[in-house]
Amino acid sequence: MSATDVTGTGREQSEEAGKAVISVNSLGKRFGDVAAVNGVGFTVAAGEAFAFLGPNGAGKSTTISILCTLLHPTSGEARVAGFDVVRDALAVRRRIGLVFQDPTLDDYLTAEENLRFHAQLYRVQRAQIPRRLDEVLDMVELSDRRHSLVRTFSGGMKRRLEIARGLMHSPQVLFLDEPTVGLDPQTRSHIWSYINELRAREDITMFLTTHYMDEAENCERIAIIDHGEIVATGSPEALKEAVGQDRIELHVDDPAEAIDELREKFDIEAKLSEGLVAFHVAGAEEFAPRLLLELHTPTRSIRIARPTLDDVFMSYTGRTIRDAEASGAERMRSRPMVRARRAR
Amino acid sequence: MSATTVPIRGVQEPAGGLRDELAAIAVVWHRELLRFSRNRLRMVTSLVQPLLFLFILGSGLSSMLPSSGDVNFKTFMFPGIIAMTIFFTALSSALSIVWDREFGFMREMLVAPVHRGSIVLGKCAGGATVATLQGIVILALAGVVDVPYSGGLLVTLVAEMVLMAISLTALGLLLASRMQQVESFMAVMNFVMLPLFFLSGAIFPPKGLPGWLSLVTKFDPLTYAVDPVRRAVFAHVQASTAVKQALSAGVKWGHWTLPISVELSIIAAMGAVMLALAVQQFGRAE
Question: Global pTM?
């Protein structure tokens, strides 16, 4: 495993694994010839919010499914809340809450009936159910809709109800698999305000997967995963600092010429990203005046940005998450498309 | 790693074991009833078909037949229609398991800290309850087709209906256990339902069939569900022995007429096997 642990905390944590609520050791899952997860290892401390950040198909959902005992790993081991996910699956299940990527509510029951079903299935004590119902519904602001059928809910409301349900039995760990995928930006930020509030109120460890950078920023620690392997772990700040370079984006009339010029004059490999010429350089603020002086290609605007998680991902994998997803999608496309593009 | 026994906050940890599983069965059963009670349309439509068979097909057939003495032909069909109601309702209740899988709710149950067998048992209890309730609605029409409302008869019939409902729901669950799509289950259901129904003697006495077909009826589990109901009904209907012999002769293996207790045991055994297979299939599924 060549994963970089930027903060170095990973090792300390595995030494005192007693505090780890999730500990994963060279975990692997193969589907036939394909290694969806390839020797992943990490620990999550109690009370921490931990994110798996990576493009679609990187192995995030497979890992979360193993941790939730829905899939058996083909190698390695994982412990959640002190129990092995294979040998003590029921003990693990009792202690975790899950919010899936796809809806798993019963549309023909009311919000409250869905929660009660869950509470009884997880054997929440009968006397505690009413109080807990009020708490979780209040947390996601659905108290006034508790007697409405779920099929009358919007996508965002359903997701909130799923979060409430995942908390119904007061789990130690809440797993969120792409909690805001398919929701509009406003709803996404709402969902996040609920998640942050629940973290403030409940003493809970969170493990989530996402391919949104801004979501990962909400977490204390991030593991960047690509092609089934963790390439870096650390806090968002530490990861960004470790990149050490700022990002410069140029809006120019002739991007191809600008890229050539950058290579010849500054020995910089720039890339075209969404119509802008982008590259990384240390001390961008001092570099920018020199650049504008020497670049012949007319420049319309220049933007200097501190490293983002996307840059972190890029520095470890050589591409952006969006590119990684686009190329993944491209591979699936049929040949004629590729040929058409080449012909142009 | 023993230090991670953080108590589950505000909630006592369940003891585990049998009580958890019974609670799971109960909650899955309860959900089936809730869903059924919400679906008025389903309640009505699943009764339309048996009523059509009984009153339209029954009237039509009885006008074609030479007079069967003092017994209304609909009286003959009535036990078959009860079996039909239970059979069709039981199978379509099993559909809910495919439905849950297709619409995601199955995952909510699969990740719960209970065995999958309990989910199947809960589904079976739910489907069987719904089927029995529908059967009771049909049973309420007994007077219309000259079947007396005698206490003993009603208790016997309801008990037979419960047994039938459990076994047939188990059959449906087994069929549904590996199905991913509602459409494919519908197709299989039609493929299974009508042949079993027609061969069961529900709407005509199977002895009118040619020899080989009459042999096939002996392999139709529904035969052993319809016959006890019919024999119970005919035991309470006023008719000559000859007519009773013609319409409710019982099922024969060779020259041996099966006692009702054997017929009921066959249904119970079939149900137990189906249920065991469904639990096993479902546990594997994924």
Answer: 0.81
